[in-house]
Amino acid sequence: SPARREFVERPKHLVEHGAFPIYVANRTWARAQEMARTLAGTPVPFDEIMHALTSVDIVITSAAAPEPLVTRRAVQDVMHGRRRPLFFIDIAVPRNVQSSVNTLANVYVYDVDDLKSVVDANIRERLRLLHDVAAQCDVWIAVGAVSARNVLPAP
Description:
Elements: H1 2-16, E1 23-26, H2 29-38, E2 42-45, H3 49-52, E3 58-61, H4 72-79, E4 86-90, E5 107-111, H5 112-136, H6 138-151
Parallel strand pairs: 1-2, 3-4, 4-5
Helix pairs in contact: 5-6
């Protein structure tokens, strides 16, 4: 599925930029092994997820579950004695990470809405820069005036 491919591509990007090791958990052990092979990672039994959190810095979640799988209490236990921050990227709907996890010291939770805000801000900045460039390029404006008026917001 497109969602599954997207979920696999994100960790691949992290690996390409030096994130290692990668641990993969799934309710189905065979699926965890398959995804771990794809990512050059290590499969982790689903019931050992919390133990695996003690050795990672970034957790990407995307499990179909009616209730959060990652609770404040569990993360609080993981963070006991830990000095490194722990980041959760929760792309599941409904959320896999309990919202109160974000109130813990040195723990940061980002969800789909946060990621959308980042994308929207990036688009606004690119459009602003494009508008600035367009204002300085008489030739471009003459050639692309119609599309520039339709695409660029007023300054």
